[in-house]
Amino acid sequence: QYKFRDLTIEELKNVSKTYPNFTFSMNTYTFKDGSQKDLLNFSGTVPVKYGNSYNIPIQLWILDSHPFAPPICFLKPTANMGISVGKHVDAHGRIYLPYLQNWSHPKSTVTGLIKEMIAKFEEELPLYSLSPSDAARQSELLSYIAKITEGQTDMKSRSKIADKNEGCFNKITVIGAGDLGIACVLAVAAKGVADKVILLDLSEGASKGGTMDLEIFALPNVDISKDFSASADSKVVVLTVNSLGNAQTYLDVIQSNVDLFKGIIPAISHYSQNAVILVASHPVEIMTYVSWKLSAFPKSRVIGVGANLDSERFQYILTNLLKAEMLAKDAWVVGEQGEDKVPSWTSDNLVADQMEGMAACTSREKVANRAMEALKGKGQRSWSVGLSVADLTDSILKDKRKVHSVSTLAKGCCSINSEVFLSLPCILGTSGVIEMVKLEEDPLVQEKLQSSAGSIHDLQQQLKL
């Protein structure tokens, strides 16, 4: 079953030489989605010095794509041990390390992983001794877990577990624990669109700022992880990360983001093969294109937040401030985020008479210009983009078939012949973009879109994918 059997055997020989106390076996591993697979695993203890010397019991599961995928690592506490939840260990004993996050064959090895594990455990001991009464309760719990693993529970218990798993349909992963990532988590949680929200924190070291606050106040259905496998089977994956490198030019900044995405997109594509990827990273048009190329997903399932926020604001201003509700219904902001965005329309509300139609068109343009002026200076704060992301995920997960202006592949629209992503009105559902809504034929809008497409394509051609 192992795709790279010889490489896996060679590495496990090295582990056995370094840690002779480890035992190897084949057992059934149950993934978070309930699926199962027979996997090679090994158990043993690693020596840790934390004042005194301790032998910490661990178990490592080797995936069938090893050594190109990292092991799944757990603590294996005995009945008189309790798990000390920290920055590298969760309440279930799952171990999270930078080494796992940055796993890359051939430089990453199991022995190297164990060395880092020991080093991190010496900074923060992952286990503690239980009192006799606590140990008894722990023993009872471990016994029950063992029965579940071995299939010895009754059918009623199995049914309850199955029902619980089947109820958790809508899972969203937000990648990036900066202000924008946390804003997205809070907005999605507040809107109640998901059964489970995973915040994937790719930063090194201890939890900081908002991430720590999320852990402290423990929002229902929100989990924080550093392991890509926690994102498995997400319906929507939201990308909010941006590189904080020392790039000097705009092209360098974008290339730095591309390099960052090279380590992210393949992983999320592996764990959530049917997800819709929603990009909020900057520049959104180019990073959506990069996500599409790196994921090899169909174009319908890779979209950017684009001008969704601007469009919602534009329609709100037309309706509530300028009292032009009839115009607002078909009004959109399209094109490229920033100064080059442009207002457009998806249907012609003009009257049949040509003279009256020209007058109505002139009036509409004046109202649109006033609305665009009102949009200036509003800015896009993290929380406002987070609300926009929650709005988009709501339409996707609930299959609302609602129209949004999002970054989508624009090739073939408005005489654009290059593979670029621009904001255009699209109907969204569970499979992402269901249909692109046709814009009115406005020469000025088409010229603006073609100009944006040309400049974006020129930048893309200079990137190293």
TrEMBL record:
Name recorded for this polypeptide: UEVLD enzyme
Top-level taxon of the source organism: Eukaryota
Organism listed in the record: Sakesphorus luctuosus
All copies of domain UEV, residue ranges: 1-131
MF (Gene Ontology): L-lactate dehydrogenase (NAD+) activity
Pfam families named in the record: Ldh_1_C, Ldh_1_N, UEV
PROSITE patterns per the UniProt record, alphabetical: UEV
Swiss-Prot/TrEMBL catalytic activity: (S)-lactate + NAD(+) = pyruvate + NADH + H(+)
Name of the gene: Uevld
Stretch forming the signal peptide: none
Example of a GO biological process term: lactate metabolic process
InterPro entries attached to this UniProt entry: L-lactate/malate_DH, Lactate/malate_DH_C, Lactate/malate_DH_N, Lactate_DH/Glyco_Ohase_4_C, NAD(P)-bd_dom_sf, UBQ-conjugating_enzyme/RWD, UEV_N
Protein function: Interconverts simultaneously and stereospecifically pyruvate and lactate with concomitant interconversion of NADH and NAD(+).
